[in-house]
Amino acid sequence: MRISTLLANKGSDVATIGGDATVAQAVDELSRHHVGALVVSDDGQTIDGIVSERDVVRKMSESGEAVVHELVSSIMSPTVTTCSPDDDTESLMRIMTERRIRHVPVTVEGRLCGIVSIGDVVKDRIEELEKNRTELIEYITAR
Q1: Distance between CA atoms of residues 85 and 109, nearest Å
Q2: Which of 40, 70, 92, 96 has the fewest CB atoms within 10 Å, i.e. is most exposed?
Q3: Nearest-5° angle of CA 87, CA 3, CA 35?
Q4: Within a 10 A sphere around the Cβ of 25, how many other Cβ atoms?
Q5: What is the pLDDT of residues 55-101, one digit of tens each?
Q6: Which stretch of DSSP H or E encloses residue 32?
Q7: pLDDT (tens digit per residue) in 108-118
Q8: Cα–Cα distance between 80 and 67 in angstroms, integer?
Q9: Quick one: how far is CA 99 from the chain centroid?
Q10: Is the pTM of this model over 0.70?
């Protein structure tokens, strides 16, 4: 399945936050949107980085609760793996596994147009396998 099809099914909304926001604000946004990562973007279109629950926890382990007063830009991952709507989910799953990342923003000509999580990719794969299983059972029982 193509990423564009996956986005058509799940939606293309992306939770973003500015790099000048505090980590406390990022935690509030993660909770409010029920997501595991926020794309760091000042304009909602260009990607400056990504900040995840994992980034917050790791920094909290180093700095303690004072981390909530730090800026998102100080804990975000500035190097972001992205994909295109034309990419396929199987390739993306392989990249996510190899790079140990859980969230991949989707871009067109450098502009943010969606985000895919490992959960989205796994759900798609399970649905595909269930469809194949049903088709095989129908084929076998039809004989």
Answers
A1: 11
A2: 70
A3: 125
A4: 16
A5: 999 999 999 999 999 999 999 999 999 999 999 999 999 999 999 99
A6: helix 23-33
A7: 999 999 999 99
A8: 22
A9: 13
A10: yes
**Are 14 and 37 contacting, i.e. CB atoms less than 8 angstroms apart?**
no
Q: Name all contacts of 99-105 with Cβ < 8 Å and 24+ positions apart.
A: 102/36, 102/37, 102/52, 102/54, 103/36, 103/37, 103/50, 103/52, 105/14, 105/39, 105/47, 105/50, 105/80
Residue in the structure block whose two tokens are 């793996």? 81
Q: How far apart are CA 37 and CA 52, in angstroms?
A: 4
Structure tokens at 35: 């997501």
